[in-house]
Amino acid sequence: MAVDFEERVDFARLRQYRLSRARQSLEGSELGALLCFDVNNVRYLTSTQIGEWVRDKVCRYALLARGGEPTLWDFGSAALHHRLHAPWLRPENSRAGMLGLRGSVAPEAGLMDAAAAEVKGLLDDAGVGDDPVGVDIAEVPMLFALERAGVKVADGQQVMLDARQAKSADEILLLSTSAAMVDGAYQVISEVLKPGIRENEIVGIVNEFLYGAGSDDVEAVNAVAGERCSPHPHNFSDRMIRPGDQAFFDIIQSYNGYRTCYYRTFSVGRATLPQLDAYKRAREWIDAAIALVKPGISTDTIARAWPRADEFGFAGEMEAFGLQFGHGLGLALHERPIISRLSSLEHPVTIEEGMVFALETYCPATDGYSAARIEEEIVVTSSGPSVITLFPADELFVANAY
Questions:
Q1: For labelling alongside 280, which of 127, 151, 169, 386 has CA 20 to 30 A away?
Q2: pLDDT tens-digit profile of 16-68?
Q3: Other beta carbons less than 10 A from residue 58's beta carbon
């Protein structure tokens, strides 16, 4: 990952870039500060992380006031660890904090009120105590505690998403490395995808490969085969693979926090004409979308390259959401831009250089149960799209043909 004889990821530069982007976005808003509980935003502001187990605990939070340095409240002894090993944070700004672990300690214990009072004191010290404070996500009792402390709560998620949408060269390299790990996972899948293996067994094999390759979080592996392909269930089961099945997979994992969303479709042993036809149409739809990608184009133009929901068997765009789809990638699975006929036609977003997003298409087969699913990750460059998902997908891959 890092060597002395080549320039690769410069983590000091990465930390500086992310904090500068957040400061720039904050300065361009009406907010006096950002108070973040979303673990992705906390990592973006502070370049700290203590493990994926905290993702749903709402127990880490960070404050960035205009003109100030980030203050981090972390889980118990992690604060001391940061003082020893994260010198980019001021020692006094790495603090232990605990809000109650999603209500396991009741709000009446006063932990949230104490935390809110501490935040208000820092805001006053920074001279922004009377300004709105942008909060991304929070437990409802914590919002009440902030209001009791005199904090004017506003929406901070949009400000953070503004900051995070343009990726630096270091972020793009981390995203590309993360995608390369999934290239390897698909090679493994192509070798083990034979009659008799179960979907959940493949999920286990992929997890083992990715953690061995350096993943820090295998968020999900969707494994969908046979009659489960249509409609798309967005999960995996214990279904056993059979000869002639069509099977598709989505591998969502991260490397140094930077995530993938990367579908591939296979047929097992042989492919039928309906399977081949469905794959051909899914490939045409995704290629049409990729060809449009360049700075300055708006997301409604891309969304219109895809079929309407009723053209591939769904009652409306809400029911078909996520099937013909685009979404930003970074520290989170879903960042800007979101591209969909559900929202983009009326509320388009302009594509910018440095954005990284996934484009995915889905086509059910005429046999009534097979379906094709393809996804490519795209870096927006000044000259157009650069695809970083490289496992072969131009044609339907027949695994272990016979």
A1: 386
A2: 999 999 999 999 999 999 999 999 999 999 999 998 999 999 999 999 999 99
A3: 19
Question: Which pLDDT belongs to residue 372?
Answer: 98
With CA atoms as reference, report the closest residue to 218 among 267, 172, 185: 185
- Which residue has tokens 């302009």? 350
- Can you read off the two tokens belonging to residue 81? 């660890």
Residue 2 pLDDT > 90: no
Distance between CA atoms of residues 279 and 256, nearest Å: 33
The domain limits of the chain are 11-162, 169-399
Burial class (CB in 10 A: 0-12, 13-18, 19+), 381: middle
Quick check: 14 and 170 in contact, CB under 8 A?
yes
Residues 280/393, Cβ–Cβ less than 8 Å = no
Other C-beta atoms within 10 Å of 207: how many?
16
In DSSP notation, 249-299 reads EEEEEEETTEE--EEEEEEES---HHHHHHHHHHHHHHHHHHHH--TT-BH
306: Cβ contacts below 8 Å, ≥ 6 apart? 285, 288, 289, 324, 341, 361
Residue 354 pLDDT exceeds 90:
yes
CATH of domain 11-162: 3.40.350.10
pTM over 0.90: yes
- Give the pLDDT confidence score for residue 158 in this predicted structure: 97
For the chain, what is the radius of gyration of the CA atoms? 23
Alpha helix (H) residue ranges in 126-272: 140-148, 157-164, 169-192, 199-213
Tell me the CATH class for 169-399: alpha beta
DSSP sequence for 279-292: HHHHHHHHHHHHHH
- Buried residues in 80-112 as b, exposed as e (16+ CB within 10 A): eebbeebeebeeebbbebbbbeeeeeebeeebb
d(CA 393, CA 402): 20
- Give the CA distances from residue 207 to residues 170, 180, 213, 223, 352, in Å, rounded to whole numbers and listed in that order: 25, 15, 10, 12, 34
Residue with tokens 């992690």: 78
Return the residue matching tokens 């361009």: 28
